Amino acid sequence: MSGPIVGRARELAVLHQALDDTKDGRGGCHVIFGPPGIGKSRLLLAAGDHADERDIAVAAREAFRHDLAAPLVTLAGALRACSPPTGDFAWLSGVDDHPTGNYAKIHRLRDSLERFAAAQPLLIVIDDAHWMDELSALAVRELVPALASFPVRWLLASRTQPADTPGGQTLSWLSQRGTPIHLDVLDDEATERLCVERIGARVDNTVLALVAGCGGFPLRIEQLLDALLATRQIMVADGIATVVGEDLPSSFVATVREIVGSLSADAQRLLRSVSVLDRPFDIESGARLMGSQDPAELFGLIDEVTTSGLLVEDQDGLVFRHALVHQAVQNSLGNSQAQLLHGKAAVLARERGRPTAEIAGHLLRSGRVGAGAAVEMLRGTAAGVAATAPATAADLMLQALQAIGEHDPARPAIIADTVGLLASAGRVSKAHELGIEALRAELDPATRATIQLGLAEAFKHAGQNAKAAEFAEDGLNQPKIAEDVRARLHAVRAHATFYLDDLTAADAAGAEAARIGREHEPGAAVFGLTARSLVAGAEGRLDEALGHASRATELADTVRGPALHRHPRIWLANALIALDRFDEAEQALRRGRQESDALGTAWAQPLWHYHWAALLTARGRLDDAVAEADAGVTTAEQLTAYQLAVPLLGTLVKLAVLRGDPDQGRGLLERMRELLGTGITAAPEDVIWPEATLLLAEGATREAFALLPGLYDTAVERPTLIVQHPGIAATLVRLATAVGDPGRAEAIAASAAGLARRNPQSHAAAGAAEHAMGVLGRDPRRLQAAVQRFRLSRRPLALAAALADAAELARATGTAGDRAGVRGWYDEALGLCASAGAHGLRQRLESGLGAWLGAVLPEPPPDQRETCLPSLSPAERPVALLVAQGMTNIVVARQLNLSPHTVDSHLRKIFMKLDIRSRVELAALVARECHG
């Protein structure tokens, strides 16, 4: 569309303000929705022009349907075409050959974008973004929030109802977290202005009455006016345009046909020939499709069709001016014409080395013979992209299924493969629908078991463990199945039944997965061993938990390949934390996260955050733990791994209570309940205990106790909660005593004592037992023993709780003599709470013993008070100072041994606390307040 943009003053103002903000150092994202022909592309061009005027670099690209099977092609294409040109993204030209996995590519792209944006603001524009390839869509989910503190602005345009593609899902996700721009049709005033601009003269009512039939769609109005001008049905007299003649075009398709009909016969044939192509084309391709041997013969025809406005030239070649124009021309082809042209296009695409999905797409539309070849190509392509783009691979297989029909003998095997791909892509309902369809048919046992494995993995991926276990068991009941499939079925069943609280079944299935998998499927063996580690940990057999996780890690390190993708160091760190071996746990987490980044295994990212948060909580670094858990929730939502968000939200609820913010905890609990309402299941320690903790903080003692009978009654066999949080044993004893249930109080004390006996090397377990028995029997010697044990465990919050209980008992029984000893315990407990950021626990201590002792935690001496950014926590301050020095988030993460997601989380809180919106403002604030 040439000339000034009409009727979009409000939308332009929003985009201009956004770009002015970007110039000032602030990032963000805008999604533009609207039906075809409404003017989205013109708005993007106008935004690009404004960015250029503001010296903002522009990286723009239109996404095409065939992008779907080419990993990162959409973003890579935009950034490689960055204006002004830059070498920062040159590595993207070989991205398909890069040896690392998907998440590693995104991490590298983030690094490149951070470094570029540190020097120059950037606008990234993607038109028809619903056609983004799967890896680009994942990258956008990751990078939009990650780069929010940088001057990087994203503009993504899509049809009003995005396609159910990875790109469409990403746009919906982004629009839920922002305020999308919805383009409406032009009003009468804007329509009249557009007519004046297009014709170059004022218009009368004959013109306005005719264009009213275009419904306010700018493209339709322009095409109608072009048709009228081409057929000389618009006359201008005395500066006013009027319509003359009869049989005037009224619909958009008729308008396009009118324009096409005004062209020469050869020009019309060129348009119809190239209409079968879904990407920009060159003159040689047009000549081949027309059957011409000399591309030079098309020069005059190209001029004719571009002058008509139906085709335009861009950086990639010739393309239809708009998808609707393309569709209108394409619809003019007869069936036999279309089949012939698609056959030629398939040959041409193969010669040009186009993606096999594109070739297969043409073959599918070239007739029965071509469709048969297309099915094989689609299956081959799906196998090739399954590791990098499972959703795209699944879509390719679904196309193959549509092509072969319901009774083709190859259909069951294709369904089996497709169900597995749908599982990997998290498309549970479609996997279930397709799998059930196949299972109704007569299938051989091997194919039936493979389909059931895919269904089990799909439901496990979605956190629906009951269905996952059911399908895994059904698969295992087949009489003859391959051993590798059998091992994988056992592994899935082991993890599913663990979260269904059937520990015996989980351990047995894990053992079978390990036994069979060592020889036939090492990845399944690793996964089975990690399930056994979880079971042993839940039952309080901590050495065995460590042993299983260690063997899983050794096996993965030895065989590598897919086994390493199971990331057993997640569960190794979990076992080490339970045994108070924090330094070793940190090493395991650090190495495991590095491996995960290198392998590009996105699924593991939320779990690393979860276990980092657990380690930091045990060490009493609550601010860091919140940042890790918050980053984990963000990552889980970006990956649509909502089942992993549940335990992370539970962690954040518990941390909110410890830090004295129950209101925030209530909001987090509601988010967790919403996810659980979808059918996701999780361990009770991750779901029930956070809610009970919140109720206790709000004084609802009986309501909290009412949630916990299951935890009390299974505590001896399943002391998981005490393993995770040793200080909780005494809390549970105190709660049961307070509501008049001494039997359950004794059960918790017995559980803690049994845990200590089974794990004599664990200071935390011994501390939990002494603490619980001390509270149960009001025994000061046991409480003092708990204090000593917790000192050795290096768990400051458990120590603070034991010190507080010892002080409280001394006050209540009068065994402290003078108050000096009690004051020492009390002050130490307050100091530990303050250092950890446990303001909620500190407030509870002050409301109890504080009133009796008349003491509160003293303010630090003036020379020890933090004068630089005092509103920030000790975890946030170093992040703020390094960012203010000009370091990118990735560099800050390396400097502080954090993940980039954790730095992002800290930075969001820093901006909120300091009421700033950009790194530039942060640097100015630090310079003013910290350096004079």
Automatic annotation (TrEMBL):
<dbReference type="Pfam" id="PF00196">
    <property type="entry name" value="GerE"/>
</dbReference>
<protein>
    <submittedName>
        <fullName>ATP/maltotriose-dependent transcriptional regulator MalT</fullName>
    </submittedName>
</protein>
<dbReference type="GO" id="GO:0003677">
    <property type="term" value="F:DNA binding"/>
</dbReference>
<dbReference type="InterPro" id="IPR011990">
    <property type="entry name" value="TPR-like_helical_dom_sf"/>
</dbReference>
<dbReference type="InterPro" id="IPR041664">
    <property type="entry name" value="AAA_16"/>
</dbReference>
<dbReference type="GO" id="GO:0004016">
    <property type="term" value="F:adenylate cyclase activity"/>
</dbReference>
<keyword id="KW-0067">ATP-binding</keyword>
<dbReference type="InterPro" id="IPR036388">
    <property type="entry name" value="WH-like_DNA-bd_sf"/>
</dbReference>
<dbReference type="GO" id="GO:0005524">
    <property type="term" value="F:ATP binding"/>
</dbReference>
<dbReference type="GO" id="GO:0005737">
    <property type="term" value="C:cytoplasm"/>
</dbReference>
<keyword id="KW-0547">Nucleotide-binding</keyword>
<dbReference type="InterPro" id="IPR027417">
    <property type="entry name" value="P-loop_NTPase"/>
</dbReference>
<dbReference type="GO" id="GO:0006355">
    <property type="term" value="P:regulation of DNA-templated transcription"/>
</dbReference>
<dbReference type="InterPro" id="IPR000792">
    <property type="entry name" value="Tscrpt_reg_LuxR_C"/>
</dbReference>
<feature type="domain" description="HTH luxR-type">
    <location>
        <begin position="865"/>
        <end position="930"/>
    </location>
</feature>
<dbReference type="Pfam" id="PF13191">
    <property type="entry name" value="AAA_16"/>
</dbReference>
<dbReference type="InterPro" id="IPR016032">
    <property type="entry name" value="Sig_transdc_resp-reg_C-effctor"/>
</dbReference>
